[in-house]
Design a protein that fits this description.
The chain is α+β, with helices and mostly antiparallel strands. It contains six helices and nine strands, in the order ββββαβαββαααββα.
Length: 241
């Protein structure tokens, strides 16, 4: 029986979420370089082919370290993208040939989610240009990167339903209840009354009120809080219903 097995390359792509000071969800994109292609058409998700002696998770950690300079980041594998035509665009083919010096006719990618505080200093050792993009302002990207981002949003909503603590990876060390509410609303797409949200959050002993309030704000100054991971792990409290 003659089977037409594929001969292919495998890569990882990382969707890195951040939450900015305007309370918007952001994605970290990098810039590739292709002659005669406009700069605004050269953004992409950070990624790489996997080395022959490298585990796929190790490859994702390598990509994130080259991207940010941060050694330890929250990381979650969520889906494999293997459409035979995902790397069929001629511009993408030319870029792959230049980047990897191989004749690549098919590429399968394993996608990962990662979370990064947006005020964290990004010290990339690989990319000259690394920028945060609000999720509703992401441009048209190469390959199937827009599809990967859309599916990553679905995945992160599942994630916070099973582990609420990951939401604090996106917030500053001290935050207001409104910031937490706006981030949770952006991620979950649930309509929750902010007063009920505040009441529920106040019942969680792992969200600690601080003796500090906002300064120099145009609205009523709010109290700051912090997240206590040790207390959370002891309680293992599930997300807001």
């Amino acid at each position: 029986m003659n089977q037409d097995f594929i001969h292919t390359y495998v890569s990882v792509d990382c969707v890195v979420f951040g939450f900015d000071h305007d309370n918007r969800l952001n994605i970290l994109l990098v810039q590739r370089h292709i002659d005669d292609v406009a700069v605004d058409r050269q953004r992409k998700l950070p990624g790489s082919l996997i080395f022959s002696n490298e585990d796929v998770d190790d490859a994702a950690h390598r990509v994130l370290h080259e991207l940010t300079g941060i050694k330890k980041m929250v990381l979650k594998q969520f889906k494999c993208f293997a459409d035979p035509l995902r790397a069929s665009n001629q511009t993408d083919i030319i870029w792959m040939g230049t980047e990897y010096m191989h004749n690549i006719d098919r590429i399968i990618t394993v996608a990962y989610l990662s979370l990064c505080k947006i005020d964290q200093k990004i010290n990339s050792t690989k990319y000259e240009t690394v920028d945060w993009y609000p999720i509703d302002q992401v441009p048209a990207l190469p390959f199937d990167h827009n599809k990967i981002i859309n599916e990553s949003l679905t995945e992160i909503r599942r994630w916070i339903e099973t582990d609420f603590s990951i939401i604090f990876e996106l917030l500053p060390k001290k935050f207001t209840i409104r910031q937490l509410y706006q981030l949770y609303s952006a991620l979950s797409e649930k309509q929750i009354d902010i007063k009920n949200f505040h009441k529920k959050i106040s019942s969680f002993n792992y969200i600690i009120p601080l003796e500090e309030i906002e300064k120099n704000v145009s609205h009523r100054a709010a109290r700051y809080y912090r997240f206590d991971a040790k207390i959370y792990k002891k309680n293992n409290t599930r997300l807001i219903k």
